[in-house]
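Researcher: Re-running this chain for the archive, since the previous output was lost when a drive failed. Same request as before.
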Amino acid sequence: MNKSRLKGVAAVVLASMCYGVTPILTNIALKGGLPLDFARRIFGEGAPSFLTASSETAMPNESVVMLGMLLGCLISLITALISKKGKLLLDVKPKALLSMTLLGGGTFAATMLLISYAYRFMEPGSVIVLHFSYPVIACAAAALFFGERFTVYKAAAAVFAAAGIYLVSGFCGADSFVGPLLALLSAFAYAAYFLLGKHSAYADVDSSVSGVYITLGAAAAAFVAALVSGRLALPSNAFLWLVLAMSGLIGYLIGLRLLLYGIKVLGSGTAAMLNTLEPVMATLSSIAVFGESMGLMKGLGCALVLLGTIITAFGSLKQQTQ
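Model: Regenerated structure tokens:
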């Protein structure tokens, strides 16, 4: 492996680590701080009270998503300006602009909201594993609605993913079917977002530009959801502002840039295979911070979901090389 490809592998692995941390940051904001046990392990018995989770500082789902998207929009805008692509923001055609803000932003907001709702019912690591069934869903939808070939690889991936979802749903520690259902719905929403990026009016728009408008549209959608539900709120202390800012920085600047670099060097298929480390990192982070459990059956389910994603990516890579 040459140095360039090695750098690409390192970039995707680091991006997966970034995206594995962001769900933990989101959960900290939702709960209003760190779990008491984790805070004491890090800061000792005298851990400051503003660092620990409480019902008084817990944030509504809609507000966490709204603020995260606003920060993501700001970071995307700054990145576009720094890379001297700011002028492209004004060259977008009206049809593409509406498609990005309404369709792209709407499906992205729906994805993030559904994931955040699922966190209320089940462990974060399990949510991300179930959410990561989206590549298989996207492949099936592409075959059904856009005439793409449903290969043997995709069929095998669907079987493994379905078996894994069944196991994770049954052994994830959820009190009801609501959590797994919300996590799966987030996968469908993200599959729709993923397909729109390939088959919508903004498919050819530069990613640095689409990122600004999509996150702006997602922030607006989450804002409307917060107003309608009466759950509009701001962080109650500087620590929660810092958590949300770190989520935007890690997820929308560092992680995204690393992933785009890896895709450029390795190609989308290889990068997608390596990116399956994301749910693994999310699960490990959840175990470390929230004490999430990992039994044999749940672990097997996670492995099957990841295997389905890997098979999907491998089939895509083989098709590209033919």
